[in-house]
Design goal:
- The chain is an alpha/beta fold and about 425 residues long.
- It folds into 2 domains: about 230 residues, Periplasmic binding protein-like II (D-Maltodextrin-Binding Protein, domain 2); about 180 residues, D-Maltodextrin-Binding Protein, domain 2 (3-Layer(aba) Sandwich), CATH 3.40.190.
- It has 17 helices and 16 strands.
- The chain has a 7-stranded mixed sheet, with helices on both faces.
- Strand 12 and strand 13 form a beta hairpin.
- About 10% of the residues have low confidence.
Length: about 425
């Protein structure tokens, strides 16, 4: 196996941050140079004739160590395969892949593909779809159906999920985490501060906590009573000095990391960074000084936030389809998914056969429970997600400031979104 050298990079953005950065600041950084090392081995003519599979990924150091470990294990299983691994920064991944594919080149396999990125790649005719027979042959049918759904477009499987991210509740040591929203208020009255990001994507779990939804069956918005009850709860909680309903996700996360707040609702993707800061001693393999658990409920005792998928795609021009499919099967089998689950990176396995003992691995077990409660954003809304997020954020803010009654919030959201999408399609 070969891979390009890398230097220590900051922790990868959480899925929410990564998506926001792509939506708000589309940019390309030119001039990247990826040298390929040979792990101290010289190439013989026999090695040069080996089957070659090039893999691109966007896992920065030190997270990449887990991925490289997995791929090294795969190389050992098939010595005839020459596996080359290259890191590409997340902000460049999509554009570079499309450019390379249009020129007839690029990697055989690319990791780091979420739902909106997949749509762009398919629109650019850059990926090779996976047939139902290929999916069955490589046991992709063992993967969580909703995760496979995220990596499909118009009924065609365009990629394979690798891992999931979703929102969880982080809490500091010594605190009994709340299982209900009522208990969040009780903790606030006892002097413990909870930070809850209030944006359309990050706060959707609250709608689910009241058994609600904002999505209709006909690709329209249809906020129901659960949406209204969530708005009402926020109005009740807002005056509490120890409940922070904030629109600045990064500030709340950093406040939790610095010990300024006691509980924080955030992406499971924050786990690695928080562990590097909140361990004893920090960054030295010590025990974390915090925990995480599933989100607090209300009418629905097991609510979920949106499920975000990190997936893998195959280059439409690859000459190594068989090898690429075999690699994807390896990365999604039970041992590999178990390794991802135990990595401490907040990535959640999507192979339904993975089982985690909560007495041995309570954090990983909580992540798995939370993912299985999560909600999949209907693909029909992916195209307008940026507009829907902005509009939802505005509605949340108006309700929080007392400018819009909760009972009217759903109707206003639906009417504004219908008007917005109608104008865009005129």
């Amino acid at each position: 196996m070969e891979y390009g050298p890398s230097t220590l990079r900051p922790s990868k953005y959480s899925p929410r941050e990564a998506k926001k950065r792509r939506l708000l600041a589309l940019h390309r950084v030119a001039g990247i140079s990826l040298a390929v090392g040979l792990l101290g081995l010289s190439l013989t003519s026999c090695e040069l004739n080996r089957r070659r599979v090039l893999v691109w990924h966007d896992w920065p150091d030190p997270q990449a160590e887990v991925l490289i470990e997995l791929l090294q294990g795969y190389s050992e299983l098939d010595p005839s395969l020459r596996l080359i691994i290259e890191y590409v920064p997340s902000g460049e991944l999509e554009a570079r892949f499309i450019d390379e594919v249009r020129s007839g080149f690029g990697p055989d396999v690319m990791l780091g593909v979420d739902a909106d990125r997949l749509a762009d790649l398919v629109a650019a005719d850059a990926v090779r779809s996976i047939s139902p027979a290929q999916s069955a042959d490589h046991r992709f049918d063992q993967l969580e159906a909703r995760a496979l759904q995220v990596m499909a477009i118009d009924g065609s499987q365009q990629g394979v999920p690798l891992a999931g991210f979703t929102d969880v509740l982080y809490f500091r040591d010594g605190i009994e985490p709340p299982s209900t929203l009522h208990a969040v208020i009780d903790l606030a009255e006892a002097g413990y501060t909870t930070g809850i990001p209030v944006d359309f994507v990050g706060a959707y779990w609250g709608v689910d906590a009241f058994g609600g939804t904002v999505f209709g069956d006909d690709n329209t918005l249809a906020p129901d009573d659960g949406f209204v009850e969530w708005m009402e709860w926020m109005l009740e909680a807002g005056p509490q000095p120890n409940v922070i309903l904030g629109g600045d996700y990064e500030s709340l996360r950093d406040s939790f990391a610095r010990g300024r707040i006691d509980l924080f609702v955030g992406s499971s993707g924050e786990l690695a960074q928080l562990r590097s800061v909140l361990s004893e001693p920090p960054s030295d393999g010590g025990e974390p000084r915090f925990g995480l658990t599933t989100l607090p409920g209300a009418t629905n005792e097991a609510p979920g936030g949106f499920l975000e998928i990190e997936g893998m795609v195959i280059n439409r021009h690859t000459d190594h389809m068989t090898e690429a499919l075999a690699l994807l099967e390896y990365l999604t089998n039970v041992p590999s998914q178990g390794r991802i689950a135990r990595s401490g990176l907040g990535r959640i396995p999507i192979n339904e056969s993975v089982a985690i003992d909560p007495t041995i691995s309570p954090v990983e077990a909580a992540l798995l429970r939370q993912q299985r409660r999560s909600v999949v954003l209907p693909r029909s809304f992916e195209e307008n997600l940026a507009d829907l997020t902005d509009l939802g954020n505005e509605i949340y803010l108006q309700v929080a400031r007392g400018l819009l009654p909760p009972a009217d919030a759903g109707a206003v959201l639906r009417a504004r979104y219908d008007e917005l999408t109608r104008v865009e399609h005129d």
